[in-house]
Amino acid sequence: MRSSRAAISGQATGISEKGRLSLSVSLKEKISERTREKRRAGGCAATGGCKVKVCRADMEAEFREIDKTGAWGQVYQGIRQEAAENNHTLKCARKPENKFRNRYRDVSPYDHSRVKLQDGDNDYINASLLEATEANRQYILAQGPLPSTIGHFWEMVWEQRTKAVVMLNRVIEKGTIKCAQYWPLGEVNGHSDEVDLEDTGYKVTLLEEDVRPYFTIRTYLLQRLKTDESRKVFHFHYTRWPDFGVPESPAAFLHFLLEVRSSGSLESDVGPPVVHCSAGIGRSGVFCLVDTCLVLLEKTRDLDSLNIRRLLLDMRQYRMGLIQTPDQLRFSYLAVIEGARTVLGMNTGEDQVISTLGEESPDLQDGHNHLVTKDDEENTRDKPPPLPPRDPSRRSSKQRTQQFEFEYEPEDPTDTERLRERQSRVEEKKARREDKQYVREAG
Fold this sequence. Notes:
It is an enzyme of class 3 (hydrolase). By secondary structure, the chain is of the alpha/beta class.
């Protein structure tokens, strides 16, 4: 099993097994001695100098102390600062010919861990292979497909022998396009059961759809037309996770994770699952981190043996910016603690911790921590998104407290079309006001 997984890894990164081992060594050498000392010291050092003095003796005590002092922002900043020491290159993502294959100009895959397409003249796709060696897990984290990269996306799924796609966003959220409609909606929904991808030579057919309150499970037949081969692919779609926010509680998320696990799609004898949200770093990072932690807990049966921050820093060696906000980091802790009790049946002091599920830490009251309902989507579907603020000082106090690592600047023109339309309407209104003013003054 392990050897087949390693072969997939080498294929995805385009290097030999020997090269992978050399790469692993070089990555470790790039971590400074100071960073290694921090990690040996455990949680206190990883806070980046914040005032929270919590050691690794008790993970739940660590959670309660950070929550009590409202220090999630400081802990998160410490992780960002330490991860900033990574000097991995982004040469391929920055090539002119790949510019419009990136959804956001500030979220790119590292050269050493990017997934490479095997057909065609250009092997670039905005996706990264993440290896969680201790847990014997691999994940492909990808951006949400653009209209122009839908064919590339399904090509990657085929070439990597992926058994499941895990989608953590909706196509439209709060009036903003987060992802292209890359799968067939089905005749039952008034659309076709099939999507033909002529540019890459694949065909996707909807076989089954199971709609749940918080997520939907679909089964597709993915066909490679060139060779007339086909295989089934699962599509696990979590539909109630707000961008930059978190679900209201870990319960529904853990149920979703268990469904993905029970399909066998995360095991080492199949290709890596493709996990994506919009940028492939925030919600996708939470999913991979929580799953990895629970795998390790299954092995050790010791909650206090986990160092979540160290695991996250290790994951950030493969894709930039994993976990986007302090509240996503906090939710990851909650999901692991709750998962240890409900999924693994471990004896934890969960009552004190889980009682905080409905509360927000003082530094997380940013207006993003809510569930998006169907009514929210319908009310905003036809509304253009607001123009992004140009000057941080003009943002509201709530906006300024949210510590985004990336601004998600649109790269592809299709994502800015609504912004341009809105700007055009604003300019037209301004021109009409000026004309009226001129007429009044002339009269």
